[in-house]
Structure formats: structure tokens, C-alpha cells
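Problem 12. The chain below contains 347 residues. Write out its predicted structure in C-alpha cell notation.
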Amino acid sequence: MAGRKILVGICGSVAAYKVADWVRAMGREGGRPTVVMTRAATRFLPPLTVAALTGEPVHIDMFAGGDAHRLPHIALGQEADAILVAPATAQTIARLTHGLADDLLAATVLASRRPVVLCPAMNPNMYTHPATQANLARLREYGYRLVAPAEGRMACGAEGPGRLASWGEARFALLQSLAAQDLAGKRILITAGPTREPLDPVRFLTNRSSGRMGYALAAAAAVRGGEVVLVSGPVSLSPPPAVRTVQVTTAQEMADEVLRLAPEMDCIVKAAAVGDFRFAFSLDRKLKKRDAPANLALLPNPDILAELGALKKRGELRALLVGFAAESGDHVEEGRRKLAEKHLDLI
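Solution.
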């Protein structure tokens, strides 16, 4: 997003206020948003608010400005790297479908050849109407990316599809429209987070992994068009958009999932911090202090990366194999040792 010029088209919907936060989020990431608002949008969201968030004037009128050599509906689309229309109303969707250019936003999109992302938001009956669905199908044929609305209770009281999608979903579609799709057709398996080895229903053995690295890798691979499966230990993170996420808890559960999926993959990135040990026993009721032994015996967990490396050495695994090593000393030496011993392509 950093350095990218995003033209944001805001339409007349009660959800318009949410897009003000989106514009601010783009700025926080180093993006450079420019906003076009329809006349109807200004009834829901003051242009002054949006201008204050972007530090740039908001464009509304097709014929505003005194520069005869800079036509807004041409220049705005040409200067942008991508166009995001949100909330995209039924009216604007119909305009774009049929090539109308009767307001600044529709004319700008029509005159631009930049990637376009649409985030529909409207009453459920309007969204599911055959006319709207036909228009959306045509826009997909034009190459526009559509971010499907969420389902739920609307401001009008109706229930169903039509709520504006989350910024996370819109951001993903926007980033994907800007990125080279060089991982399209590639199947990528990524592991993330810690594992937990239970002693009883209350206590467990784990580590400090947050999972952020693996989740970021999964999101980046999906943005570049990869078909990504994320096998995740227990973390406090939301699954990335367009990534199939498999939740596991223990090292054995992670091993089972990874080894089951591995033969289908083109690349495996083992970013999880898998626990090396588990308790020799696990109870289904809380272990009372008075009953606890003085020493708790530990057993080794399966070494998932070593098993994958062994498969690769025997020619039974075609995937590019990437490992991670967290060390407290002798970083290069330990990295080289692990690279060789586990038959990795990259560490």
C-alpha cells in the first residue's frame, strides 16, 4: 500500500461513514488516497470530514476547478494506481455496467484503465434483485474485482446480504489488484503460531510465538495469487482473507495435518514454533497440587520439518521446503546445520 495512489469513490449509502475509516487506514499504511464522492454520498458523509482525513480536496463536481488543461474525470483515473468504489450502491453499479458517465465517479471509472475494486452495500432485496445480480455479473466480465457484502441486520431493519464488507476484505482485494499474480496456480502450505501440550484441562506447555510471521506470510502469498493453506496453532489473530485456515492445538495434530497436505503442495513454509516436548501423561481432570509429582516427565514431540526433509530426500516430496530457526546464539552455524540435516531448500 505504501506509496500507492488509490482513488476512492464513495457513494450514497448509510455505510459511507465506514469508508472514512478505510481512507484513514490507507494513510496509516503510507497509501495516498484521493476521494471522489457522488452527490448522494455528501448527504451521508460531510466532504470536509474526508478532506481532513486525506489532507486533499474531495472531488464532487464534474466541472469544478479552473484548470482547462486538467479534466478531472480523465486525470483522476490516470493518476491512480487502482480505484476502490465503496460503498457501491445499486445506482452506481448500474451506471458502471451500462457505461453511463453522468457524474464524476462514473465518468472517471469509465475513462480509466486502472484496476477497479467494488464493495457493494445496499438493502438485501436490492442486492438480490435479478437486475443487480446481472449487473454484477457483467462487471465481473469487465474484470472488476467484487468484494461480496456481509450478511446481517441492516440499518433499515432488514436481514440478509448487503452489509458493507470489512476493511480487511476490501484491503485484500485492493492489494491483490495491485500485485503481480506470480504465485497463481501454486499451492502453498504455511504453518504458524505455537503448539500447546496439555497437562490437564487447565495447564499446558507452550512457547511465546504470536503467529504473526506465519499469518503475514500467508496473507502475502494469497495477495500474489497463491492457493494458501494455513495450519495454525492457538493464536489471537484473525485468519487472512482468501486463505484456508486449519486450526490445531498440539504438535501431533499439526504433524498429522501437515503430512496429510504436504504431497499436494508446491511450497511448504514451516514458520510455526512447534513444541519440542509434551508431558508423559495428560489428565482429563485438573491435577491437584497435593497430588502432583515432584517431577513431570517429558517426551519428545514429532519433528515435522525433519519428517518432511526425509520425504524430500527420498524423492517423495516435490515442494520447495522452507524452515525457520529461532536461536539464542551461534545463529549462522545453527542455521547451516539445520539446513543440511533437515534437507531444506531455504532457512
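Discussion. The first strand starts at residue 5 and ends at 10. Students who got a different answer should revisit the alignment rule from Section 12.3.
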